[in-house]
Design goal:
The chain is α+β, with helices and mostly antiparallel strands. Helices cover 25% and strands 27% of the residues. It has nine helices and 20 strands. Helix 4 (84-92) packs parallel to helix 5 (106-113). The chain binds fe (ii) ion.
């Protein structure tokens, strides 16, 4: 007997697999660990098989249970390297459903290079449901990607004094629209944003976060303000009333590479809420419509070699973002028509 909640999850996960191009003959690996998200894994396996796919249950024993928030605070570390058979199955799959949070790990990149597309699903069911992806969202994110690809500079400002410029040109663009049907491509459910990295550490200026801007993975609001002085792709100084606490967090990693400027982009998901008290890893802030997502730490997702475990995602509200001379976001409002959500 199934409950209404189980049927709901089944329908939701089945729709996600359809968006991911799952049909007869497609090889799917559902990857999970220990007792984490076993209901998700079982539901994806059942839905995939019903769609006619060949589905493998790749389940690893776990050494230490960690919540999604703890895992995202330690990205890039996972136990797959100790399980070559599991790794092989994932590399041979067309689609890997990742319930382990492989984000930024060497293993994930290996799977992608082998041609597997990877969809990360670790968020609580109420978040997955509210932020379920659509083809329209994909189109808006891809419209943004076209503009970002041809831009030579990205600059963003805010009323608190932010004025920072990124030189662009030779780095990959990461799009997240919540599903993936493209070989070798990674995505994350929920999504709704895009990001890239500066060319040759060409990031200079300052970023001033205001009260109610968000700090992930801490899932906290900035209370009074933090200022980052940036030279040649690195934070050289952090000041302002909230700086000591954030510095203390970064210093726990004992890794100076945590001060590197990481990805930059903006959010396009109009269903996201600007809150830090929601369960899960915090996609509401990261993908929030019209935010600017400033980030420090690793760059392996963009082909770089900084694999520091300290990864700060810092969504900011009411910013203005330019690509070359074109305004893309104006005080938190998305400007180009092909990126705008209906009624926004
Ligand atoms: Fe990030």
């Amino acid at each position: 007997m199934t409950t209404a909640a189980e049927r709901d999850m089944y329908e939701l996960f089945r729709s996600e697999l359809v968006l991911c191009g799952v049909k007869p003959g497609v090889n799917v690996a559902v990857l999970s660990e220990g007792d984490q998200l076993q209901d998700y894994a079982a539901t994806f396996i059942a839905a995939g098989r019903e769609l006619g796919a060949n589905v493998e249950n790749v389940h690893l024993p776990t050494a230490k249970a960690m919540s999604a928030s703890e895992r995202i605070a330690n990205v890039g570390q996972n136990s797959l390297s100790r399980h070559p058979a599991a790794m092989k199955t994932c590399k041979q799959a067309d689609l890997v459903v990742d319930h382990m949070l492989l984000l930024f790990s060497r293993e994930q990149i290996e799977m992608q290079k082998a041609g597997a597309r990877v969809i990360l699903v670790v968020e609580p069911i109420e978040i997955l449901k509210r932020l379920a992806p659509t083809k329209a969202q994909r189109q808006r994110v891809e419209a943004a990607e076209v503009r970002l690809k041809r831009a030579k500079t990205l600059r963003f400002t805010n009323d608190a004094g932010t004025d920072v410029t990124y030189g662009l040109g030779d780095k990959e663009i990461l799009t997240e629209y919540g599903y993936t049907d493209t070989p070798g491509r990674w995505d994350h459910w929920p999504g709704g944003f895009l990001a890239t990295l500066a060319k040759n550490n060409q990031v200079n200026g300052r970023v001033v976060m205001q009260p109610k801007d968000i700090i992930y993975p801490l899932k906290s609001f900035v209370e009074k303000g933090i200022e980052f002085i940036i030279r040649d792709g690195r934070v050289v100084e952090m000041k302002g009333p909230d700086a000591p606490a954030l510095k203390k967090f970064v210093e726990t990693y004992k890794d100076p590479r945590a001060y590197a400027i990481s990805h930059i982009g903006w959010g396009l998901n109009e269903k996201c809420e600007w809150r830090v008290d929601l369960p899960g890893i915090g996609m509401d802030g990261r993908a929030h419509y019209g935010n600017v997502l400033f980030s420090l730490g690793p760059d392996t997702e963009f082909g770089g070699d900084n694999d520091t475990a300290c990864h700060l995602d810092l969504p900011m509200k009411n910013c203005t973002l330019y690509l070359d001379d074109e305004i893309i976001v104006e005080r938190g409002k998305v400007v180009p028509a092909d990126m705008r959500a209906p009624a926004h």
